[in-house]
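Posted in: Structural Biology > Protein-Ligand Complexes

Title: Requesting predicted complex, pyridoxal-5'-phosphate in pocket

I'd be grateful if someone could produce the C-alpha cells for the following input. Sequence and ligand are given below.
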Amino acid sequence: MAYEPPLRDDLRGATPYGAPQLDVPVRLNTNENPFPPSPALADAIGAAAALAAGGLNRYPDRDARDLRQRLSDYLARESGVRVSVDEVWAANGSNEVMQHVFAAFGGPGRMALGFAPTYSMYEQYARDTFTRYVTVRRNPDFSLDATTVVAAMLGGSPSIVVLTSPNNPTGTALPLEVITAACATATGVVVVDEAYAEFRRPGVPSALTLLEANPNLIVTRTMSKAFALAGARVGYAIAHPAIVDALRIVRLPYHLSAVTQAVAATALDYVDELQGQVDTLRQERDALVAWLREHGVQAVDSDANFILFGVFADRHRAWRALLDRGVLVREVGPEGWLRVTVGTPEDNAAFRTALEVVIGEDGMMVAHGD
Ligand SMILES: Cc1ncc(COP(=O)(O)O)c(C=O)c1O
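-- Reply #1 --
Done. Output follows.
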C-alpha cells in the first residue's frame, strides 16, 4: 500500500546523503583508509568488545571520560598540544560531533558560513538544526585567505564559521593566520574540521596550537581516516571546557555505546602501527600527485588522503570509464574535476593503469588554459 508520511515541508524531495557503495575491485571514493586493522589489532578489538559485552545490561559511561582522556594523550603526542579531558568531546563520528555543534550554536535565526567547494554534509547539519547555511567561494586554486574569510564574516555575522583543513574535496590545508583572523572576527564559534589532519605534509600546522589563545575555536577530528576505524564511528572535538559543556547539552543520553568506547580506546593503543600506514599513504599520495602532473592531468596539492584531479570535458564520462575498468572514484567538487582516495600501492597502480587509458580517449581532457 502506497503511503506518503507527513514529512516536514522542507524535507520533501530530499534524498539521504551518501556515495554509491558499489562492489567493484578498487574502491577509491569515500576517503577511507585502505588498510584493514592488523590481525593483532583486530584481536585486541575483539577482546575489548567481548569484555564490554559482559556489561551491556548497563548503560555506558555517558561522558566517555576514559576514551576522552586517551584521545587527549594521543593529541599531545601527535600535535604536541596538551589538553585536559574537559576540553575533549567524543561522538559517533565527527559527523555527530558537528551535528552537536550545529545544534548547540546554530538554530532558527542563526547562520553558518562555509567556503565552497567543501564537504557537503555541513548543509545537512544546518538544515536539520534550522540554521541558515551560506557559502562563499574559495580562490580559483581552492586556497582561502584571511581577507576573504573576514569579509564574508563581517557581511553576515555567522554563529558558526566552518573552516575545513585539509578541505574536502580539494585537500587544501589552511594557514594558521586565516584561522586566527576568523577567531578574532567571530561573534560566534569557529570550527576547524581536521578530519584529515594526520595526513598533512611536514611543516603544515594543526589548529590545535591556536586553542589556548582562542576560546571560541573548536577543532574536530575523527578516527575514521588515520585510525582506519570508519566502521566504528568515532569522532571528537577539542575546545574550551565551556564549549564542551554546551555540546553535552544537545547530545542524546548514552550516545556513545560501551562497545564503541572500548573499540576506540583499544585502537588508540596501536598508534605506532597505524602511523606507519599513514606515512605510507602520504608517500603514495605525493607520488600520485607527481604521476598525475607528469601525465598532463591537473592535481591540487593535497594534505589529505585524497586528490582532486582534472579537468575533464565531461567528468561523468570519465568517472564511468574508470568504473568500467573496475576503479570507483568520486564525482564531487567543481565541474570537470574528480576526487580519488589514496589506496594501497596496488589500488593506486590499478588506478594509474585505468586512468592512463581513459585520458588517452579523444576529447576526454580540457587542455590547460582552456
Ligand atoms: C571534511 C570531513 N569532515 C568530516 C567527515 C566525517 O567523518 P566521520 O563522521 O567518519 O568522522 C568527513 C568524511 O568523509 C569529511 O570529509
